[in-house]
Amino acid sequence: MRLILLGPPGAGKGTQAQRLVEKYSIPQLSTGDMLRAAVKAGTEVGQRAEAVMNAGKLVSDDIVNAIVSERIDEADCVNGFILDGYPRTLVQADAVEAMLKGKGIALDVVIELQVNDEVLVDRISGRYSCASCGTVYHDTSKKPAKDGVCDKCGSTEFKRRSDDQPDKVWTRLQAYYKETSPLIGYYYAKGLLKNVDGLQSIDDVAADIDRVLEKL
Ligand code: ADP
Ligand code: ZN
Question: What is the pTM of this model?
Answer without folding.
Answer: 0.91
